[in-house]
From TrEMBL, chains A, B:
UniProt keyword annotation of Protein transport present: no
Keywords in alphabetical order: Oxidoreductase
Gene3D superfamilies referenced in this protein's UniProt entry, alphabetically: Dihydrodipicolinate Reductase, domain 2, NAD(P)-binding Rossmann-like Domain
PANTHER family listed in its UniProt record: CONSERVED EXPRESSED OXIDOREDUCTASE (EUROFUNG), OXIDOREDUCTASE
EC number(s) stated in the UniProt entry for this protein: 1.1.99.28
Official protein name in the record: Glucose--fructose oxidoreductase
Short name of one Pfam family: GFO_IDH_MocA_C3
Ranges where the GFO/IDH/MocA-like oxidoreductase domain occurs: 182-302
Name of the top EC class for this enzyme: oxidoreductase
SUPFAM superfamilies assigned: Glyceraldehyde-3-phosphate dehydrogenase-like, C-terminal domain, NAD(P)-binding Rossmann-fold domains
Length: 379, 379
C-alpha cells in the first residue's frame, strides 16, 4: 500500500486509538485534534486505490457504496450502470467525477482512466466471467461477487485473463476479512478443542420475488446453491482448510412453486475431507439458515449468524461451558476492498483468489452432478 | 390403571396441586396435611404396576432404579442380574423382596410372580430380542431399551411374541414422555412457523472405554448409530411425523483407534421424507452432538440439549426474536414407565410401540447398507 496509509495504521496502533464505524478522515481528524499542541501532527492518510463499482443493484446500494466511508485505502472512482440517471445520482451522492461514469457500451474505456485501479463486479452471475475478462484486458484488478462464475470453465478463463494481464483477481468472500470468522478458522485449524470431526454448515433464506434473475437458470447458473449454499461450501472449506474429495446431494424443490420452476429450492449435501472430517450442509431458498458449527473431540465452535453482513454471533462450547465472544467487527466490504488494495500495493496475491473461487464452483458442480445422478461424486 | 391412581390423578388435577421431584407418597401426604380439617380426605394412591428391571448396569443404577421414586403408578418389584450380591444389595436399598430376585438362569420363573406386571430390559443390545420374547412368554408386558434389537428380523419376532402373549411391547424412547419434545412435535406438526423444510438432528459423544460391549459388533449390533445415532433417526421421524423414503450415509472411523476396530465412529446421513422435508443427521462416537433443529418457512425450532436425561434446552426462532422456553421437566424414566402402566390399565397400545422401534431399525439398516454400497438406499 502507499506510504500514507501505512503511516496512519502505524500511528493508530501506536496511540492505541480505535476507529469504529466512522469515516477514516473524521477519525483521523479526531486523533489530530486530540493531539493538538503536541509536536508531531501526522498527515491524514490518502485513499489512493480507486474502485469502479460495476452494477448498481441492491447490494451495491445497501452495502458496497456505503462501505467506502469505512475504507482505509480504497476510494470510489467509478460507477458502471445501464442507467445513466441512476449513475449520475449516485455519483453526486458519493462524489464520483463525471469521467468515472460508464455504461456497459462504454465499459472498455475504463482502460484509459488511471483513477480506476480495480473494479468490483456486482452483476448477475452469468455476467461475471465476461466483465472480469474485459476488466483484466483493460488493465484493472478485479474483485468479483460470489459465485465467481456459473461454470468452472468460465473460472479458468477468468484466472487466465488475470494472469495474462498481470493483475489480481479476487472473489468477494467478505467473511474472510472479519475477525469472528478469522478467529474460528484459527481455533479450528489449531485444534484448540482437539481434532475436528464433523462440520455443519447451513445457509439459506426464504426467497421472495419469483421474477428475480437469481431464479432464472441461465442468469443465476442454478438456484439456492449458487447464491447462498455457496456460503456453506466455502465455510466447510475454510474451516477445514481442506478440499473435499467426495460429495453427495439430495434436492427438494416444492412442486408448483413459481420460484422453483427453473432452479432448485433446497439441497442437503455432504462432503468428505481428506483428514476424515465429514461435513453436513444445507442450501435453501425456502427457509432461513445462517450457521456453522465445528464439532471437535473436546467441544465445538459455532457461529450464528455466520454469514450476515454484520452482527455475527459466536459461541465456543468447551466442556460444559458455553463461551460467548464479542469481537469488534469492521465493515466486511471495506475490509475486503482494502485487502485487494493492499495486495496490489505489496504484490502479494489476495487471500480469496480465483483458485479459491474456482474451488467452490468445482464442488458445486459436483453436488449438482450428484443430485442429477443420485450418486456420490468424487471431486 | 387401577382405581386409586386414577382417583389421585383426578384429585391432583382438581386441587391444582403439583408434585415435583418428590415421591408421590410424600407429596400425597402433603396434600392430605394441607387439607386437614376438610371433609373428604383422599386415600394416598397405591403404586400397583410392578416392574422387574432386567440388567443392573450403569443406566439402571444411575437413572432407572432411582426413577421409581418419581412414578405415580409404577413400583419396583423385581431385579434380574447375573450377580447375586449386586441384586441383593440393590434389593435392600430399593425395598424389593427376596421373591423378586432372579438370575438369568431362573429368569423364566418371573411367570409365577404376580407382583411383576412388566419387565424393563436394560441388557446389551444383542440380548434384547431373546429377553423380550421370554418375558412375553412369561406373560409380562415389556419395556425394552433402545435400540429395540440388532436387526429388523429380531424386531419382527419380538412384535409377534407380544401379539401372541396379548401383552404390550414398548421401546424406551423416554423423550416422547417429556414436555419439551412434546411441545416441539406439536408446534412442528401444527406448522406454527409454516411448512417444515429442513430437519437437522445430531447425536453423539466422545466415547471412552475401548473394551465396552457397545464397541463389539456382535453385542452392540453396530457402533455409534445403534447407540446414539438412533436418537437422530428417532427425532427426525417424530418431528416430521413421517417415515423416510430414501437415505444416504457417509462414514468415517479413525484408522488405528482401538475403539473403532469393529464398529463405526461417525456416520453423517441424510433422509428424504414424503412431504419433501429433507433431514441432515449425524451419529458420532467421536464428538459431542446433542441437538435438533427444524427449519420451517417462517422460522425454526431448536432443542439443545435435545437428548439428555434432564435439563433440556429449547429455543424458537420466530423472525428476529429468539424465544427461550422453560418447561417443567419430569423424570423421563418415571413418566415412560407410568405410560406403559397406563396403557396396560386402559388397554391402549403404548405410544412408542414395537412398530415404532422397528421403524428406527429399518432406517438404520438402510443407512448401513448405504454406507456399505456407497449408494442412496430406498427405505
Amino acid at each position: 500500500m502507499s506510504e500514507p496509509t501505512q503511516t496512519r495504521r502505524d500511528f493508530l496502533r501506536a496511540t492505541g486509538a480505535t476507529v469504529a464505524a466512522a469515516t477514516p478522515l473524521v477519525a483521523a481528524g479526531d486523533v489530530v485534534a486530540a493531539m493538538a499542541g503536541q509536536q508531531a501532527v501526522p498527515t491524514p492518510p490518502a485513499k489512493t486505490f480507486g474502485y469502479a463499482v460495476v452494477g448498481l443493484g441492491g447490494l451495491s446500494l445497501s452495502d458496497i457504496l456505503p462501505a467506502f466511508a469505512h475504507t482505509k485505502s480504497s476510494r470510489l472512482t467509478g460507477l458502471v450502470s445501464g442507467s445513466v440517471d441512476k449513475a449520475r445520482a449516485l455519483a453526486a451522492q458519493y462524489g464520483v467525477p463525471d469521467k468515472g461514469l460508464y455504461s456497459y457500451d462504454t465499459y472498455d474505456r475504463i482502460a484509459d482512466n488511471p483513477d480506476i485501479d480495480a473494479v468490483y463486479i456486482v452483476l448477475p452471475n452469468f455476467m461475471h466471467a465476461q466483465y472480469t475478462i474485459r476488466s483484466h484486458k483493460a488493465g484493472k484488478h478485479v474483485l468479483v461477487e460470489k459465485p465467481m462464475a456459473n461454470t468452472t470453465k468460465d473460472c479458468d478463463e477468468m484466472i487466465a485473463a488475470a494472469a495474462a494481464a498481470r493483475k489480481y483477481l479476487a472473489v468477494a468472500y467478505r467473511l474472510r476479512f472479519e475477525p469472528y470468522t478469522q478467529a474460528m478458522i484459527k481455533m479450528v485449524r489449531d485444534k484448540e478443542l482437539g481434532k475436528p470431526k464433523v462440520i455443519l454448515c447451513e445457509a439459506g433464506f426464504n426467497t421472495r420475488n419469483p421474477d428475480q434473475w437469481r431464479l432464472k437458470k441461465k442468469e443465476g447458473g442454478g438456484g439456492s446453491m449458487m447464491d447462498i449454499g455457496i456460503y456453506a461450501v466455502n465455510a466447510a472449506r475454510y474451516l477445514s482448510g481442506e478440499e473435499p474429495t467426495e460429495v453427495f446431494g439430495m434436492e427438494y424443490s416444492t412442486p408448483g412453486d413459481p420460484r422453483f420452476v427453473e432452479v432448485e429450492e433446497t439441497i442437503n449435501f455432504q462432503m468428505r475431507f481428506p483428514s476424515g472430517v465429514l461435513a453436513n450442509c444445507v442450501s435453501s431458498y425456502g427457509t432461513n439458515l445462517n450457521r456453522f458449527r465445528v464439532h471437535a473431540e473436546n467441544g465445538s465452535f459455532e457461529m450464528e449468524p455466520a454469514y450476515s453482513r454484520r452482527a455475527l454471533g459466536m459461541r465456543v462450547f468447551r466442556g460444559n461451558v458455553i463461551e460467548q465472544r464479542n469481537l469488534r467487527e469492521p465493515d466486511h466490504f471495506a475490509a475486503m476492498m482494502d485487502h485487494l488494495a493492499e495486495s496490489a500495493a505489496k504484490g502479494t496475491p489476495p487471500l480469496t483468489d480465483g483458485v479459491d473461487g474456482r474451488n467452490d464452483m468445482r464442488v458445486i458442480e459436483a453436488i449438482y452432478e450428484s443430485v442429477k445422478t443420485g450418486r456420490p461424486v468424487k471431486v
